[in-house]
Amino acid sequence: MSNLLINLRITEGELDVEPEAVEMNAGQLNKLVSHFHYLIKLDKIQAASYLVARHGKIAAWKSMGRLHGTIDKGDLQPDSIRKISSITKAFTSVSIMKLIEDGQLYIDQPVSTILEEFNTPVHKDITLFHLLTHTSGILPVTGYYNEPYPREWWGVNGMENWIRKVLQGPLICQPGDAYNYSSAGFALLGEIVSRVSGIKYEDYVLANIIHPLGMTRTFFDVPEHLRSEVCSVEASDIERLSVQDDNSLNPPRSDGGLYSTLYDMWRFGQMLLNGGSFEGERILGRKSVDLLTRRHLFNIPAYHWGGQIKDKGHALGFDLAINHLAYESVGTYQLEGAGRSGFFVDPVENLIVVFFVPSTSSWVPESVLGTKQIIWSSLL
Which residues of the chain, if any, have pLDDT below 50? Predict the structure, then answer.
């Protein structure tokens, strides 16, 4: 593999400790460099960056590869900004939990008590719990069933009355009967945050999560002076940044609209691992974090992009490790974003892992599964 490691620069972020200080094997962690180099040279991924922290200390933080997939604009940096796509759902879930803490919502509340469009015989039994756990039966994301034709027809003719458009047609399943991954469900949760809080979803997240945590490079709209630091796979990704869409008819960007960095996502993960607080800022109470991140689905089936899963474990908005064959501890809560990015919090090992492995491929198993195996097997 050594002949594949030529002319690829590695950049390291500032560490708090060496890996051994937090009981991690540095030699094993360093295998990530050759692992990612190999995938980059094979054109399976464009670039890679990762941050590993244990016991609240950053022990590994490196980047390599191209910042842009189609434009020669330099290298991916440890603090480069990247769209985190579906990892945004974690911020939506925390927002819902904050409103529950404030007594303004409750977890099994019927959505129809907030959104009048749900007051129908078909939708009246759908609750916040169903939306948070992807068990509402509402419009699974395009491609979830490996279907050859797109189904997100509801925005083709504009977003006016988008909630009614989302609810057209039959449910995929009865509420609570099966897991069907639904970004539309999280758009609805964002609308609920807006209605209940009285401010735009995006403004609520910024004011109550991102700014208090000091996440200074996390945005829904990347400022113009920072757009050159955004990692993109295709030129169109950068072009979209220059379009400021203020259309009030659009759904909230609560299913996948955030841009962030490895370091900012570590701060968010450390807040959760700390029981809701970070550097003196309380975002959630300890019991709220427990409710948010523990398992809530048992013996619930899922199709899940070709996988016939009989028992889909899930927390509230977070996927959940329940497979005893996986390297990460049972109870690790996690999310992955299209493109691709990963966010993992392992409470058993007091470990946070964040990585960006951008690629035009929809799925490169080695970039996610292989990466996790290398990291978790470094634990001493």
Answer: 1-5
pLDDT tens digits, one per residue of 7-30: 789 999 999 999 999 999 999 999
d(CA 380, CA 375): 11
Q: What confidence tens digit (pLDDT) does each residue in 59-95 have?
A: 999 999 999 988 888 999 999 999 999 999 999 999 9
Neighbour-count burial of 173, counting CB atoms closer than 10 A to its CB (0-12 exposed, 13-18 middle, 19+ buried): middle
Instruction: Name which of 106, 368, 104, 142 is nearest 255 in CA terms.
Output: 142
pLDDT at position 71, please? 82
Residues 173 and 337: beta-carbon distance below 8 Å: no
Contacts of 20 (CB under 8 A, 6+ apart): 26, 380
Put simply, whether the predicted model's pTM sits higher than 0.85 gets the answer yes
- If you count DSSP H runs as helices and E runs as strands, how many of each does the chain have, helices first? 12, 12
Domains of the chain: 2-86+216-276+328-376 (3.40.710.10)
Rg (CA), the chain: 20
- What's the start-to-end Cα distance of the chain, in Å? 26
Query: In this structure, are residues 124 and 313 in contact, taking their beta carbons and an 8 Å threshold?
Result: no
Q: Buried b vs exposed e over 21-38: b needs ≥16 C-beta within 10 Å?
A: ebebeeebbebbbebbbb
